[in-house]
Give the backbone structure.
Amino acid sequence: MFDQLLLGSTITFISLVGGAVMWWFLNELILWIEPWLRRPPYPVKSFVVIMMVVLSTMCMMTFGVWLWALVFKQMSVFGTLEEAVYYSLVAYTTLGLGDVVVPQEQRLLGGMTGANGFLMFGLMTAMLTDTLRHVRRVQRNLLD
């Protein structure tokens, strides 16, 4: 039990660090393009930023899912990599279809996969909100 909790906590930590690095990179990119954001047309630039955030969140999600899938495959929990990726995606998104399940001996890892995904969705939501708020603030200050 404790080995599963330690492994799951380690994977979750790595996943969250990956998400934090992605958020940091996105913030640096936004700061770098800020002079461009200050010039009209604003709606087009807001759309570009939204797409940057969406792509960043997709990368964060993909990283987390693949990280869990590779651990499951390395532990021989699933027979194929496709099955490990599928389970990780279903658990990470907290969809939990139940058509593919981890063996009872690793079921704590299955729950931790879902908890990791839940935390990452919160981080991604905060990232989207924070980035769009920053862009709108930059553009509104120019209009005042």
User: Anything to note?
Assistant: The chain is about 80% helix and 0% strand. The chain has a mean pLDDT of 90. Residues 2-143 form one domain.
